[in-house]
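Form 7-S
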Amino acid sequence: MVQNTVLRRNSNMISRVIGGETVLLPLYRDSREINCIYTLNPAAAWVWRRIDGKTGLDKIAGEAAGEFRSSPAEIRTTLSRLAAELKSIKAVM
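Output:
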């Protein structure tokens, strides 16, 4: 999934850094519809900041190799899993 995949953030998902943690909150018409708030771990937050609708996951994986102490294969696997999770909560498209 990493190769050539470009994700863009869903405009109906707000992200904020609160107390050093990145939080995702889906936008709803009514506060009664809110049933979840997502908190990203530091590595996921690092990836979230790079999702811009232009940069492919392959490039993000390459940048991650210089940032994190993991093998390229582990980075690709983790990034693919994160992308799937972000899609499942409709944070990205």
